[in-house]
């Protein structure tokens, strides 16, 4: 006999963080469920409190994981450069009393401009099981004290000449890729978002479409764990900032995503952030299709909209970037350790 709790039941007030037996790492659900053997210890965090139950099939159910407070999402500085001298590597995760920190994903932050370089997270299709979105609208401030992140992302603050186009808080690690409701909360940090045009970020935009296609691909290959790198490229010759006076929160010119598994790189994608289009390309051969029709949900091909306002997209294999790879050297080194 065993204890089982569906992750679809761990929502709303059940913002619980289930841990492995080491009490220091997140327990991965399987096929949308957490399972324990009879008599096995169940370790979890409610709010900031570390708690333990013992698996007894007759007494363990979702109600045992009601939490009065949400998890304490925070970052940990790893004291490691990740894209130049002004960069720092952080882990985002959950903190509990007694100094316990449970990591979830990793990000690279440019401290001089308070801008994100890239984020790395893991995606396992077999983990998922009917957990809805968080409907979370508030983002947690990050490591630049005094910077009014929230204010700068408002349309009133941006004063865009055309009200149809404005910058949203573009997730790099999308909450869609987090299988557990409480884990999704950790993606709502200003350490995990960059200014992104609404027509590219929202449903129907190519960045949204790319996130959707990668997620569906992972579900179709449920037993493969993917490591996803999401990042941006800034223009060093023409720096643009969301916080203009402070020269903080830089606006990117490209978004990129690299999908890898344990042994090789699947593809690298580039989404232009220029609403007028671009002739620039990083791929010798475009392996994406660009004839996606409005409203289609096909996942047979990497198919995108061929419209600049949605973000012109192209993709290729890692080897196609050998001579003009624009990604940070630290990311290239990590990925080059895989077989391509």
TrEMBL record:
<dbReference type="InterPro" id="IPR040255">
    <property type="entry name" value="Non-specific_endonuclease"/>
</dbReference>
<protein>
    <submittedName>
        <fullName>Putative salivary endonuclease</fullName>
    </submittedName>
</protein>
<dbReference type="GO" id="GO:0005634">
    <property type="term" value="C:nucleus"/>
</dbReference>
<dbReference type="GO" id="GO:0000014">
    <property type="term" value="F:single-stranded DNA endodeoxyribonuclease activity"/>
</dbReference>
<comment type="similarity">
    <text>Belongs to the DNA/RNA non-specific endonuclease family.</text>
</comment>
<dbReference type="InterPro" id="IPR001604">
    <property type="entry name" value="Endo_G_ENPP1-like_dom"/>
</dbReference>
<dbReference type="GO" id="GO:0004521">
    <property type="term" value="F:RNA endonuclease activity"/>
</dbReference>
<dbReference type="InterPro" id="IPR044929">
    <property type="entry name" value="DNA/RNA_non-sp_Endonuclease_sf"/>
</dbReference>
<dbReference type="GO" id="GO:0046872">
    <property type="term" value="F:metal ion binding"/>
</dbReference>
<dbReference type="Pfam" id="PF01223">
    <property type="entry name" value="Endonuclease_NS"/>
</dbReference>
<dbReference type="GO" id="GO:0006309">
    <property type="term" value="P:apoptotic DNA fragmentation"/>
</dbReference>
<keyword id="KW-0378">Hydrolase</keyword>
<feature type="domain" description="DNA/RNA non-specific endonuclease/pyrophosphatase/phosphodiesterase">
    <location>
        <begin position="101"/>
        <end position="311"/>
    </location>
</feature>
<keyword id="KW-0540">Nuclease</keyword>
<keyword id="KW-0255">Endonuclease</keyword>
<dbReference type="GO" id="GO:0003676">
    <property type="term" value="F:nucleic acid binding"/>
</dbReference>
<dbReference type="GO" id="GO:0005743">
    <property type="term" value="C:mitochondrial inner membrane"/>
</dbReference>
<dbReference type="InterPro" id="IPR044925">
    <property type="entry name" value="His-Me_finger_sf"/>
</dbReference>
């Amino acid at each position: 006999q065993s204890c089982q709790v569906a992750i679809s039941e761990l929502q709303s007030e059940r913002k619980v963080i289930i841990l492995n037996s080491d009490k220091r790492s997140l327990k991965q659900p399987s096929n949308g469920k957490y399972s324990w053997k009879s008599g096995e210890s169940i370790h979890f965090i409610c709010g900031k409190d570390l708690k333990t139950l013992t698996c007894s099939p007759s007494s363990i159910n979702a109600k045992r994981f009601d939490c009065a407070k949400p998890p304490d999402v925070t970052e940990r500085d790893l004291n490691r450069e990740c894209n130049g001298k002004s960069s720092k590597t952080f882990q985002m995760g959950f903190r509990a009393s007694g100094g316990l920190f449970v990591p979830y994903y990793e990000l690279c932050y440019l401290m001089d401009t308070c801008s994100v370089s890239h984020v790395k997270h893991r995606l396992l299709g077999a983990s998922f099981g009917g957990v809805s979105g968080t409907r979370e609208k508030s983002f947690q401030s990050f490591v630049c004290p005094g910077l009014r992140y929230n204010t700068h992302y408002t349309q009133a603050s941006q004063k865009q000449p055309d009200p149809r186009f404005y910058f949203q808080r573009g997730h790099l690690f999308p909450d869609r890729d987090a299988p557990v409701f409480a884990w999704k909360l950790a993606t709502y940090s200003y350490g995990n978002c960059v200014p992104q045009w609404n027509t590219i970020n929202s449903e129907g935009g190519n960045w949204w479409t790319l996130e959707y296609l990668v997620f569906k691909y992972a579900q179709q290959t449920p037993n493969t764990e993917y490591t996803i790198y999401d990042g941006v490229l800034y223009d060093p010759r023409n720096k643009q900032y969301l916080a203009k006076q402070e020269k903080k929160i830089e606006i990117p010119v490209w978004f990129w995503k690299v999908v890898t598994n344990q042994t090789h790189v699947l593809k690298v994608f580039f989404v232009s952030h220029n609403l007028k289009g671009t002739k620039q390309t990083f791929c010798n051969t475009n392996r994406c299709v660009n004839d996606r029709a409005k409203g289609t949900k096909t996942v047979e091909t990497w198919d995108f909209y061929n419209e600049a306002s949605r973000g012109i997209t192209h993709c290729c294999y890692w080897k196609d970037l050998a001579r003009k790879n624009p990604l940070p050297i630290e990311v290239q080194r990590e990925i080059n350790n895989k077989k391509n």
